[in-house]
Amino acid sequence: MITAIVLIKTSVDRIPEIAEAIAAIDSVSEVFSVTGTYDLIAMVRVGRHDDLADIIPGQISKIPGVEATDTHVAFRAYSQHELDAAFAIGLES
Q: Which Pfam family name is an example for this entry (predicted)?
């Protein structure tokens, strides 16, 4: 399984509907609204590198309101727990 972390700049006034459209794409497992330079982060999981071209420029970038993407392909996941904890910083259990 190949995991790509996609940082997404959007039209700020349309973040919720853009996030929902991205989340509806089959290979997208999560979409996070974040602070900082980017507005959304999407986790994309595919079977082949070629599939990333179908998902990111082929679908995500074509959603109205998506202005730019920056994709990072993960080499290795160390544990699901560490991944969950990284995205839960500041949240109470």
A: AsnC_trans_reg
> Can you tell me the distance from the alpha carbon of 49 to that of 38, in angstroms, rounded to the nearest whole number?
24
The residue type of 4 is A
**Domain-wise residue ranges, the chain:** 2-86
Question: Which amino acid is present at 7?
Answer: L
Query: In this structure, are residues 6 and 41 in contact, taking their beta carbons and an 8 Å threshold?
Result: yes
Where would I find the beta strands (DSSP E) of the chain?
2-10, 28-33, 40-46, 66-73
Name the residue type at position 60: I
pTM: 0.82
Task: Kindly report, residue by residue over 4-60, the tens digit of the pLDDT.
Answer: 999 999 999 999 999 999 999 999 999 999 999 999 999 999 999 999 999 999 999
Could you confirm whether domain 2-86 is CATH 3.30.70.920? yes
